[in-house]
Design a protein that fits this description.
mainly alpha, two-stranded antiparallel sheet, 14 helices, 4 strands, binds zinc ion
Length: 341
């Protein structure tokens, strides 16, 4: 496909789509009913439906009977860990192998003109972004993901969390399924904004931001503290009346759902003439500029707080003005604290 019909490429080979990054037409005023109706299919397909189905599959084929989960034992916990690790490997690798190993679409629609393997850096373990990101995903990402899963399943199995059944509460639980991405967005925004405060950024979140040019393996490349905060989204289902399948959907939404935002391409080509939007631009801009787009745009919190960047020159100017104002405030505070001679 000719990506230049949909965007432009600068001298360094970086691609920018013509269509600015946008937020979902949901939590907006005045409402835009027509845009909302057009947006609905993209809310379900393909990812949200896929992650719900994967949660169902786990429930039926991977997660042990309730009686087993009433007692902690290495057997079922390690089985969960192994299945999660294999699933992460294949899901992440599916994107990685097509776009970054075989490079089936070259750098068409690729935001950053370079591939991570072309730029070894000391910030990464073994100077390799791919190896570093992969090791972090498996050494702390999957274990902490599994830990959160074990805590939630044990709590349900032992009656510590309010467990509603789909048979008795189909409407409420159906609505709760629809809200899972909203819970994720709210939780992700809050913890993400928190770890962008200076101390936590330096010691925790900078690990994730080492990948300025993110690729699929960057999705779970985080400090263990960030993994803990990130997967804690599933704990909402221990407080609100819910069901373990929906709690697993919340977990899969976080664990598997991190990939599309880090895919690094604006569109993924399926055939010579067809491609699907990745919706990765918002989070790509976050990796590029750091202090914009803390959320993924389902709830337009960044717009409300003035930190949204849609990739346009105008947004660039606003970001620079914010940065200068912040610097001026910091200088004024420093000057106020310095005793006069
Ligand atoms: Zn990221
Ligand atoms: Zn960040």
């Amino acid at each position: 496909m000719d990506d230049l019909k949909y965007g432009t490429r600068d001298k360094r080979g970086n691609y920018s789509p013509n269509q600015p990054a946008g937020t979902a037409p949901v939590f907006i005023w005045p409402p835009k009913p027509l845009e909302f109706l057009k947006w609905i299919p993209s809310y379900f397909l393909p990812y949200n439906a896929l992650f719900f189905l994967s949660a169902l599959a786990w429930w039926h084929w991977v997660i042990p009977p309730v009686e087993t989960m009433q007692h902690l034992a290495w057997g079922w916990v390690l089985k969960l860990f192994a299945v999660n690790a294999v699933a992460v490997f294949f899901w992440y690798f599916a994107f990685e192998v097509q776009l970054y190993v075989r490079r089936t679409q070259g750098n068409r629609f690729k935001y950053n003109g370079k591939f991570p393997s072309e730029t070894p850096s000391d910030v990464f373990w073994f100077k390799s972004q791919n190896l570093d990101n992969m090791l972090r995903a498996f050494l702390s990402g999957v274990p902490i993901w599994t830990g959160a899963q074990v805590i939630v399943l044990s709590a349900f199995a032992n009656g510590y969390a309010p467990w509603l059944t789909f048979a008795a509460n189909p409407v409420y639980l159906g609505l709760l399924c629809l809200v899972v991405p909203v819970i994720h967005e709210f939780h992700f925004f809050c913890v993400h904004r928190l770890i962008h405060t200076p101390f936590l950024y330096k010691w925790v979140h900078s690990v994730h931001h080492n990948s300025i040019n993110p690729s699929p393996w960057s999705s779970l490349s985080m400090h263990p503290v960030e993994h803990l905060l990130y997967f804690a989204a599933t704990f909402y289902h221990l407080i609100i009346p819910s069901n373990p399948i929906i709690a697993m959907y919340q977990l899969h939404y976080a664990g598997f759902g991190a990939v599309p935002g880090h895919v690094g391409f604006d569109k993924v080509e399926l055939t010579e003439n067809t491609a699907v939007d990745s919706h990765a631009y918002i989070h790509y801009l976050h990796h590029k500029y750091f202090e914009v787009n803390y959320g993924d745009g389902l709830i337009p919190i960044d717009k409300w707080l003035g930190t949204f960047h849609d990739g346009s020159k105008q947004a660039d100017e606003q970001m620079k003005a914010r940065y200068l104002a912040k610097k001026a405030r910091a200088n004024a505070q420093r000057a106020a604290k310095t005793p006069a001679k």
